[in-house]
Design goal:
Number of helices: 4
Number of strands: 5
Structural class: alpha/beta
Helix content: 40-55%
Order of helices and strands: EEHEEHEHH
Shape: globular
Radius of gyration: 13 Å
Largest sheet: 3 strands, parallel
Strand order of the largest sheet: 1-3-5
Distance between the termini: 29 Å
């Protein structure tokens, strides 16, 4: 299942609630969660926080949480600025970039 609300161009603290509701509903339905960030142009840490919590909860429950495609440039830039890529693990790179960090 793809989290459709993630197709928004802006995923910031002002509008992250829609994505939150969508992924929580899918999580509670025990369905795989694919999140499509391909059209995201404006992003802030609320997206990263939501996805980190979702990944942690999914891992603890043995659930698959993934991005449909590698993180787009605005998300990659935010991860870099916020320091999330400074010591990224292979699991982090797999999640955010499907295995290879974007240059």
């Amino acid at each position: 299942m793809v989290a459709r609300s993630a197709s928004a161009k802006s995923l910031t603290v002002r509008n992250i609630t829609e994505l939150y509701r969508d992924v929580v509903a899918r999580y509670e339905a025990e369905a795989p969660i694919d999140i499509d960030l391909t059209s995201v142009e404006d992003v802030d840490l609320s997206l990263v926080q939501l996805l980190l919590v979702l990944r942690t909860a999914g891992a603890a429950a043995g659930r698959e949480i993934r991005l449909r495609s590698p993180a787009p440039a605005p998300v990659a830039a935010l991860l870099e600025r916020a320091g999330f890529l400074a010591a990224a693990t292979s699991q982090d790179l797999d999640f955010w970039f499907h295995g290879e960090r974007a240059q």
